[in-house]
Amino acid sequence: MTSDRESGAHPLGDVDRLVHEPARLLILSQLYVIKACDFLFMQKQTGLTKGNLSSHLTKLEDAGYVEIIKEFAGKRPRTLLRLTPSGRQAFSNHVASLREWMANVPNQP
Amino acid sequence: MTSDRESGAHPLGDVDRLVHEPARLLILSQLYVIKACDFLFMQKQTGLTKGNLSSHLTKLEDAGYVEIIKEFAGKRPRTLLRLTPSGRQAFSNHVASLREWMANVPNQP
DNA sequence: GCACTTAGGTTTGCAGTGCAAACCAGTTTG
DNA sequence: CAAACTGGTTTGCACTGCAAACCTAAGTGC
Q1: Which of A11, A43, A94, A104 is the most exposed place for a label (fewest CB within 10 A)?
Q2: DSSP assignment letter at B65
Q3: Per residue in A19-77, pLDDT tens?
């Protein structure tokens, strides 16, 4: 019964996979800077398909990382996206982990 | 018939998901520095379970990113791991993409 | 008024993946 | 000889990312 798994105290060992996903990194990094935008703007910025973007957003919303506000602009629906405080925190932590990890990766091939 | 998907020329848009996986980032970054090691050493370093490590290594081998050399140390089998040139290249590219992307992420919350 | 298109997304189907548990061949120990 | 350990590999499964298909409401041609 040797316990097989070791400590796991590595910078990347217990990374938040919800944040680590590339598409979501793009979404979060946008919101991290611009505070709020609508669905279509985000689609342009990230290059994702609507379906794809929609499901990533839902996932981020379920995690409490982004707030999805639906309102009407005139008579047309519009979806506003905003980073929640805990989303901001999670993203910031993730980037910090990456930076820390990368600090140990030498530059020269 | 609006084409839905946009260019996708973002730094993270077409990231190599084989490399991006956290467990594999750990493996590759180890090999990037130490040139070669055996299975158990890698397990200690990464904190992965054997099964998990084994399957990640197989995947990296299939991709041509690591070389898995089986030999005997006395009477006991030993598995040596080494980064291939293309693995080194792929990892290096990936880190470069991350660095580039992170350069646009502001430090302050 | 009525068909058709467009905007703005959501839901569905499916292939691919990461994970640990179960397994296995060979070796050492009691 | 049996039990336990080494050094891994294979299996089973739940989850996930993706694009295609779908949906509802607003505009447009006639």
Answers
A1: A104
A2: S
A3: 999 999 999 999 999 989 999 999 999 999 999 999 999 999 999 999 999 988 777 78
Assign B5 to helix, strand or coil.
Answer: coil
Query: Which phi and psi angles does A22 have, rounded to 5°?
Result: -50, -45
Protein-contacted positions of strand D (CB under 7 Å): 5-11, 16-21, 25-27
Residue B71: both structure tokens together: 């030999």
Question: On the CB side of A77, how many CA atoms lie within 13 Å of its CA?
Answer: 5
Answer whether B44 sits within 8 Å of A6, measured CB to CB. yes
How far is residue B71 from each of residues A38, B37, B51, B78, measured CA to CA in Å? 58, 12, 20, 5
- DSSP letters along chain A, please? ---------STTTT--HHHHSHHHHHHHHHHHHHSEEEHHHHHHHH---HHHHHHHHHHHHHTTSEEEEEEEETTEEEEEEEE-HHHHHHHHHHHHHHHHHHHTS-S--
Concatenating the DSSP letter of every residue in A9-37 gives -STTTT--HHHHSHHHHHHHHHHHHHSEE
Q: How many helices (H) and strands (E) does chain B have?
A: 5, 3
Of B13, B22, B43, Cβ closest to residue A47:
B13
Q: Which of B17, B9, B4, B46 is nearest to A21 (CA)?
A: B17
Rounded CA–C1' distance between A52 and C13, in angstroms: 14
Q: What is the pTM of this model?
A: 0.89
Q: Whole-angstrom Cα distance, residue B46 to residue B37?
A: 12
What's the token pair of residue B34? Answer: 């130490």
